Amino acid sequence: MSLDNNTDVATRFLFEQADIRGETVALKQSFEQLTENHGYSETVRALLGQFAAAVVLISNNLKYRGKIILQAQSQGDLSLLMVECTSEAAIRGIARGDVSTERDDPWELLAGGQLAITIERENGPRYQGIIALDTHSLAAALDDYFLQSEQLNTRFWLSANSEYAAGLMLQQLPAQLNQDASAREDQWQHAVILADTVQASDLLTLAPDALIYRLYHQDPIRLYPATSVSFHCPCSRERSHSALLLLPLVELEEMLEDDGHIDMQCDMCGQAYRFLRSDFTELADTRILH
Ligand SMILES: [Zn+2]
Q1: Which of 158, 172, 229, 276 lies in the 20 to 30 Å Cα band around 31?
Q2: Whose CA is closest to 152, among 167, 171, 175, 134?
Q3: Tally of domains in the chain
Q4: Which residue range is the domain that position 102 belongs to?
């Protein structure tokens, strides 16, 4: 099965005889929508693709409504790169800075940067962890982060070109099936060594089922139904309106007097919103006062 008919899905799997879970993701259309119309270079697209694949892999384990945000800030060519994924598997994201730069290694675009992983829970607490991007790849940075924060062995394999974004994650689960520490370690190493045989090009050409079969056809694996991943931006006219109302009314007045309207455009999806004086009843009130 080729990747083309199996994109924009995340597939979770479980080792039946080891305390290890895994997940694959392959994005095409949602990745295209996330990166189109921004003037991104191929290098920037590839980096956004790695972030998109990673954030889907991380968020698919969310047990409540909310979202995960992966946000890098750097002194390099890109001042900011952010991709988020909701518990409904909707992604959006953006890169800021010199977004047309090409590099051999996309990672260089975020030189000397920091990565923040934020877990936002609907009607709940917000958690944020920050790590230095001193590793050689996003996958390595995330491996370190999970080992430190969750005390669980976690490994990521991420790959993206200008068309596809894909990834594989393995995570050791708390001891349940197997209590013996050295047997657990052997099982973990077995799973990782096989996953390490995956080439970046395999991730970008094999369908999720085919990838999992190729790696683990000798291990009993339980495959879960795939989750659809889509691009969605929750921006709205109402939210833009509320954002404008945070400005001093005098400033709104000035903007309206200059052009007769105020145009706002969403950075992430490009949606444009136009507001006229009649959209702001608050302004009418101030004029009466004067
Ligand atoms: Zn938007």
Answers
A1: 172
A2: 171
A3: 2
A4: 3-231
- Find the 73 Cα to ligand 1 centroid distance in Å: 21
Instruction: For ligand 1, an ion, list residues with CB under 5 A.
Output: 233, 235, 266, 268-269, 271
Q: Are residues 32 and 151 in the same domain?
A: yes
DSSP run (H or E) holding 49:
helix 42-59
Q: Are residues 173 and 278 in the same domain?
A: no
Residue ending a domain, choose from 231, 251, 276: 231
Q: What is the pLDDT of residues 154-199, one digit of tens each?
A: 999 999 998 999 999 999 999 999 999 999 999 999 999 999 999 9
Choose the final residue of a domain: 197, 214, 231. 231
What's the CA-to-centroid distance between 126 and ligand 1, angstroms?
22
199: amino acid identity, one letter: Q
More confident residue, 64 or 236: 236
Is pLDDT above 70 for 288? no
Specify whether 148 is located in the same domain as 285. no
Q: Are 43 and 110 in contact (CB under 8 A)?
A: no
- Tell whether 85 and 169 lie within a shared domain: yes
Q: Tell whether the model's pLDDT for residue 138 goes beyond 70.
A: yes
Cα of 105 to ligand 1 centre, how many Å? 29
Each residue's pLDDT tens digit, 254-286 = 989 888 899 999 988 988 999 998 898 877 655
Q: Mean pLDDT, to the nearest integer, of 41-69?
A: 93
The CATH number that applies at residue 79 is: 3.55.30.10
Distance from Cα 234 to the centre of ligand 1, integer Å: 6
Q: How confident is the model over 89-99, as pLDDT tens digits?
A: 999 999 999 99
How far apart are the CA of 195 and the centre of ligand 1, in A? 36
Calculate the CA dihedral of residues 2, 210, 226, 165 and round it to 10 degrees.
-60
Ligand 1 centroid to residue 271 C-alpha, Å = 6
How far does residue 287's CA lie from ligand 1's centre (Å)? 32
274 and 224 in a single domain? The answer is: no
Q: What share of the chain is helix, strand, coil (3-state, %, to 5)?
A: 35, 30, 35
